[in-house]
Automatic annotation (TrEMBL):
Domain SUEL-type lectin as annotated: residue spans: 197-280
Protein name according to UniProt: beta-galactosidase
Highest taxon, organism lineage: Eukaryota
Family: Belongs to the glycosyl hydrolase 35 family.
Record's keyword terms, sorted: Apoplast, Glycoprotein, Glycosidase, Hydrolase, Secreted, Signal
Signal peptide: none
The organism of origin for this protein: Actinidia rufa
Length: 285
């Protein structure tokens, strides 16, 4: 009865959970009030104690086919094949509510998809599955759903790491790697300590394409950047010259780099640099 309730915070002694009153009706002697009887409680979930999320313990309980949205406090299980390749794997739980997930007996943590932000969106709906948890085929996925959800909408997907982004403004401090400790003093580790955008492709790949670049007042998030009204016309050219064909690159956040006063449409604003690039491997001949 108390699964998912807060277990910390102020005024815990004033929070109530579980049944307030219990009566038995339909007796020959009338209604029997057992509210004040001696009650006990059990901590934990029976399925968790039986370890029904593991392959060798599944048979300890009877499973029935799931049909669409289910009630709260329900266990679900299914099997899936591991996606090919070495890209990261994630579990998309958009149609579920709140609970815990296991893959091949290993917990991948709690999920809480039906807790929405002020924008009406969950803070997270995709959950990482370590490749080390997976087999080529017949991977066991078990969920304990606390508030009710529809398992038909669960997806196993690959995470694209070939698109990388940077979003930085003139107000950002330089990278912490620009400094080092010398005894009890902090000193610069590089000759020129300046703020800049730093991009690095994974797995030895190289930057093949600059998909977006704007120095001025861009806004948005990675994959959805939008130019503002003050974008420097040299933005993409500067990023391409610094980054194309490299595994990693840095773009200094300097107005002179992007054309200086001659190309500055909005000299009085704090400048922002937004960059989105795509990584890839060199094609073999």
């Amino acid at each position: 009865m108390t699964v998912g309730f807060p277990n910390s915070g102020a005024y815990m002694e004033k929070r109530f959970a579980g049944p307030r009153a219990v009566t038995i009706q339909g007796l020959n002697a009338g209604t029997l009030d057992v509210t004040l009887n001696t009650w006990g409680h059990e901590v934990g979930i029976k399925g968790e104690k039986l370890q029904v999320y593991t392959e060798d313990k599944l048979s300890k309980v009877k499973w029935t086919p799931a049909k669409g949205s289910g009630p709260p406090l329900t266990w679900y299980k299914t099997y899936f094949n591991a996606p090919e390749g070495d890209s990261p794997v994630a579990l998309r739980l958009t149609t579920m509510g709140k609970g815990v997930a296991w893959v091949n007996g290993q917990s991948i943590g709690r999920y809480w998809v039906n807790y929405l932000s002020p924008l009406g969106q969950p803070s997270q709906s995709e959950y990482h599955i370590p490749r080390s948890f997976l087999k080529p085929g017949k991977n066991l996925l078990v969920l304990f759903e606390e508030t009710g959800g529809n398992p038909d909408g669960i997806e196993v997907l690959l995470v694209n790491r070939d698109t990388i982004c940077s979003f930085i403004s003139e107000d950002h401090p330089p990278s912490v790697k620009s400094w080092e400790r010398n005894g009890d003093q902090i000193q610069a580790a590089v000759e020129d300590v300046k703020t800049g955008a730093h991009l690095s492709c994974p797995d030895g790949k190289k930057i093949k394409l600059v998909e977006f670049a704007s120095f001025g007042d861009p806004f948005g998030s990675c994959g959805n950047y939008v130019e503002g009204k003050c974008t420097s016309p040299n933005s993409k050219k500067v990023v391409e010259e610094n980054c194309l064909g490299k595994n990693s690159c840095s773009i200094p956040l300097e107005r002179e780099t992007f054309g200086g006063k001659s190309d500055d449409r909005c000299p009085d604003i704090t400048k922002v640099l937004a960059v989105q690039v795509r990584c890839g491997r060199d094609k073999s001949v």
